[in-house]
Amino acid sequence: MVLALRQLAILAVLSSSTWLINATLTPGSTSRYWNCCKPSCAWDAVAGDVSGVVTSCDINDQPLSNATVPSGCDGGGAYMCSDLSPWAISDSLAYGFASVTTANPSCCSCYMLTFTSGPIVGKQMIVQAVNTSSDGATNQFDIAIPGGGYGLNDGCSREWAANSTVWGAQYGGITTNTCNQFPENLQAGCNFRWDFMQGADNPAVNYFEVTCPAAIVAKSGCTPTCCIPGGPSAISTFSIAPAAPSAPPPVPAAPAASSAPPAAPPPANPASQSSLSSEAQGVFITSAGYYSFQAAPVRRSAAPVASLEAANGALLR
Q1: In angstroms, what CA-CA distances link 168 with 147, 202, 226?
Q2: Mean pLDDT throughout 149-169?
Q3: What's the pTM?
Q4: What is the pLDDT of residues 19-34, one digit of tens each?
Q5: CB 109 within 8 A of CB 134
């Protein structure tokens, strides 16, 4: 469990623009949807302290500058943008958007999901809340995936002339890959379910809150004002300066001449090889490396960490 938490924390912050807010793991569930409706977090008066609102699009999938345009699901001209489709960052990490139901859901907050069931156990995804809802189960993430089903509302019939033959059931959407019959702007997002998610059907997750990666904010246009990408901002918990570099060891004097063979070096002391397998229970990463956030003294890596594999093999100092 401790190792899993360490790995979650590392992957949550592989970008210098992603910082942990709350690393407490909470079990949750997922579902999927794509209803084409204007997101609830796309209105001027969204709940929560946010910078910007989620971008909505016109019927031609072009961004709207006016956040007051009514939703296409209510007869208006604002729809869900295709930019809110999910995408893979690597084989094990993806970004996307979701309708979020938690105890206190907040527009534009981001969450790291780690899948705990189905064929994608161990894969992870950072999602941003573009809808917040009191419907559905608590701690549920309804991931926005084209072809995921309309759910309660259907704007896709109006925007894309969608039909159930291609778009599938109202709840759950398609059961086989018909993505090549979707509008071109939605095909990559539709294929995400069959590629990155390997056809997983509403897998369970553990999750915790993170600040939003810049790549997500660039697509949605919205982020909580507490957590502007690039630093911890108002989150004093993580206002930790990088550790000063250690002084170099003194240069040993040249050994006296001797005919005896040199002595073998002493064996390495495993206790001094402080790696992630025995160290910090949580880590956040900046361009200068990764840092422990447990109570022990903050220690800095010798070099930036570019991957989970590199982090697991690196030493803290």
Answers
A1: 7, 16, 39
A2: 93
A3: 0.69
A4: 555 556 889 999 999 9
A5: no
